[in-house]
Design brief:
16 strands; Double-stranded beta-helix; 8-stranded mixed beta sheet; 3-stranded antiparallel beta sheet; globular; alpha+beta
Length: about 290
């Protein structure tokens, strides 16, 4: 941006980082009890800026869970361990292989594709909290965010009319297939069956319309499969044009919160993944059914 936009809310300073999305929040220690007033300030800033960056935080998983729960009901990850237990509510995001070594081909790599968290759920995610614990020493491993308000609003009127009442099928199985990860197990398919969401959703808080697509989307109801896939690819390319994207360059201690209801995001492997570890702690708040 030519000129950063700064605002003050109580003891907090909020500085806009880019036109598409992103604001840095200064003046808060998230390891302390947040309180409803500061929670409300952060939530309003999230609605306005879509991505919040809060630097120099040092949170234990329990502290991150306490923070997350201030914004809604936390959810567990889709994976299960060998005993069938669901994953922890604060889980580790990393670039490690099965032997625990840094790798350009980590155990799972779906996050390198544009997506919105948990769109394969009937009730997808509201907000994601990602806390940087260990980063490549020279930087890299950026996370990019695409503004889906802008993506929808910049569509031609003819396309808006075409997609107004269309719905896409999202699934965990499609995620695994589309990203080239291991195939979904029968148990995972049973736990996360395909769901249908509108291509255009209305944000429940701002009431603005946004495209709702991403790598979890498999096909479009009512269209021939190939026709639907081509339409999804067209919308996908349009949404992720650089003018719609904010790229976050991580620093140790960053806590980044984003609104999944109006964004796509992905991680970028712009560092030596076979040499350096990238470890972050992730937690998620359940949202509402898209409509």
């Amino acid at each position: 941006m030519d000129q950063q936009v700064r605002e003050r809310a109580g003891s907090l300073n909020v500085t806009r980082l880019s036109e598409p999305a992103g604001a840095e929040v200064v003046g808060i220690d998230l390891s302390l009890q947040l309180g409803t007033k500061k929670r409300d300030i952060l939530f309003e800033a999230l609605l306005k800026h879509h991505v919040l960056v809060i630097r120099d935080q040092d949170l234990t998983p329990d502290q991150q869970m306490t923070l997350t729960a201030m914004f809604g009901k936390p959810e567990s990850h889709v994976f299960h361990d060998a005993e069938g237990q669901s994953g922890p509510q604060v889980h580790v995001v990393n670039n490690l292989d099965k032997q625990g070594n840094p790798s350009s081909r980590p155990t799972t790599f779906g996050s390198f594709f544009w997506h919105t968290d948990k769109s394969y759920h009937e009730v997808p995610s509201l907000a994601t909290f990602l806390h940087a614990r260990e980063l490549p020493p020279g930087g890299g491993g950026d996370t990019e965010f695409a503004n889906m308000y802008n993506a929808y609003e910049s569509l031609d009127d003819a396309v808006k009319k075409q997609i107004a009442n269309l719905r896409a099928v999202h699934s965990w199985e499609a995620n695994r297939r589309n990203t080239g990860n291991r195939a979904a197990t029968e148990e995972e398919k049973k736990l996360r069956p395909p769901v249908s969401h509108p291509l255009v959703r209305t944000h429940p808080d701002t009431k603005r319309k946004a495209l709702y697509i991403g790598i979890h989307a498999d096909c479009i109801e009512g269209l021939e499969r190939e026709q639907g896939i081509e339409l999804l690819k067209k919308l996908y390319r349009h949404s992720t044009e650089r003018k719609n994207v904010y790229a976050h360059s991580w620093k140790p201690g960053d806590l980044v919160i984003w609104d999944n209801r109006c964004l796509l995001h992905r991680v970028v492997g712009n560092y030596d993944m076979d040499t350096h570890r990238r470890i972050l702690h992730r937690s998620v708040v359940i949202g509402t059914k898209p409509c």
